[in-house]
Specification:
- The protein is α/β, with parallel strands linked by helices.
- The chain is built from nine helices and ten strands.
- The mean pLDDT is about 90.
């Protein structure tokens, strides 16, 4: 499907990233266009380049070459402006373990430029959104894995991002916490564009409107779910398509 870059929330063109001392680029010739309110599932085996691509798109890393436009702003040239528009939920829990979730969000909010009653109201909204009201003042190290993941999501949405990057946000958690996170993300898609990486194919089928599968730093197939299912004849589900395109060989 051709998409109008002028109406897109995010446009990536010719993205390339290589690291010193490595022969294989982590990302090469990556092109993505994501419309307003879409949730793109970015899939790939270990080492495919997903986390590098997410890191570049979310301004945490500079590309070797290529462009990233977020809401019409060049993210490579003007990362400070773009940071005001985006949220990021990383693979690792990015919270201070000896602080409560409320304290973590208050600290993060001040870094983001929020103050006073506006900040306190937004903290309360985010805590309620992820179902941590009764535990908001307990230190993070006392939390279960699922609670930490929900708190991580609260931190990622604190600034009401227009685009939210999620890098395996449900890895290693209980089904109840996973279902809550997926339900909340689905509820956000009216106002928030998302790029979602995961190894759980069922999550993608549940919340994503489009899918891009990466391997060896490139996108090898991209489209709406119903289009992706036709890429490998005889596939019963997205996992069959994924294995059919990327192979059964183990990746490190």
């Amino acid at each position: 499907m051709n998409r109008d870059p002028n109406s897109a929330a995010l446009v990536v063109k010719g993205l390339f990233k290589s690291y010193a001392g490595t022969l294989q680029p982590a990302v090469k010739d990556l092109n993505i266009t994501i419309g307003e309110g879409e949730i793109l599932g970015l899939l790939g085996p270990n080492g495919a380049g997903k986390t590098t691509a997410i890191s570049i798109m979310s301004t945490l890393m500079k590309p070797t070459k290529g462009t990233v436009m977020i809401k019409g702003i060049d993210a490579v040239r003007f990362p400070k402006e773009v940071k005001k528009l985006i949220g990021y939920v990383p693979q690792e829990v990015a919270l201070y373990a000896d602080m409560s979730v409320r304290e973590n969000l208050r600290f993060l909010g001040r870094v983001l430029g929020l103050r006073g009653i506006e900040l306190e109201n937004r903290i309360s909204e985010c805590i309620e959104f992820v179902g941590l009201e009764s535990s908001a003042d307990k230190r993070v190290f006392t939390y279960s894995g699922g609670m930490k993941r929900r708190a991580n999501l609260a931190a990622g949405i604190l600034n009401k991002p227009k685009i939210l990057f999620l890098d395996e946000p449900t890895v290693g958690i209980d089904p109840q916490s996973r279902n809550l996170i997926l339900d909340k993300l689905s509820a956000m898609k009216t106002n928030t564009t998302m790029i979602y990486t995961t190894h759980y194919m069922g999550e993608v089928e549940q919340i994503c409107s489009r899918v891009a599968i990466m391997d060896m730093g490139r996108i090898i197939v991209e489209g709406a779910l119903e289009q992706i299912y036709t890429c490998v004849p005889g596939s019963a589900d997205l996992e069959d398509v994924f294995i059919g395109l990327t192979g059964r060989q183990l990746r490190e």
